[in-house]
Amino acid sequence: MIYIEDEQVVIKTDKELEILIEKLVEYTLKEEGVTKEFELSILFVDNERIKDINREERGKDIETDVLSFPMLHYPKGKVFKEVYLNYDFLPEDLYEGRLILGDIVLSLEKAEEQRGEFDHSFKREVCYLIIHSVLHLLGYDHMEEEEKALMRKREEEILQKFNIIRE
């Protein structure tokens, strides 16, 4: 189950974008080996709100584009399919039978700014940031060059599958 909530008023969203996001998330999770019923939330905010959350949660008093809050633990360098692919989750690990993957907070205002910087569509920027965050929920990271290359490769593969390309 994917929950999408829009708490900002700066950028107008539409149902078409939400449907695309749901399809991207479901596809990414399936490709990464999530076979259980799942739950994750996506919250759209503005720059001011994401700055507040970034300061509260990470001690960084700056705006950012997206924040990911995974609920599963991953050993360094491991991703969902390497740790949990055939994992037998206990009932207490689940919420109403669903695996809680985590939360994503995305500043649509920042996505609009970055769309211009990267010279592509708002839709592409939002989709990229959603995939990026979902991969973070699944253990991917980009702190080390090798991990970064793997994460970027997965992001681009998924975007290409949906024909979301740089224009």
List keywords for this structure.
single chain, Collagenase (Catalytic Domain), 16% strand, EC 3.1.-.-, nuclease, hydrolase, endonuclease
Describe the overall structure.
By secondary structure, the protein is α/β, with parallel strands linked by helices. It has a single domain, classed as Metalloproteases ("zincins"), catalytic domain (Collagenase (Catalytic Domain)). The protein is 46% helix and 16% strand. The protein has a four-stranded mixed sheet. Strand 1, helix 1 and strand 2 (38-45) form a beta-alpha-beta unit. The longest helix is centred in the first third of the chain and has 17 residues, at 15-31. Belongs to the endoribonuclease YbeY family. Its EC number is 3.1.-.-. Single strand-specific metallo-endoribonuclease involved in late-stage 70S ribosome quality control and in maturation of the 3' terminus of the 16S rRNA. Its cofactor is Zn(2+).
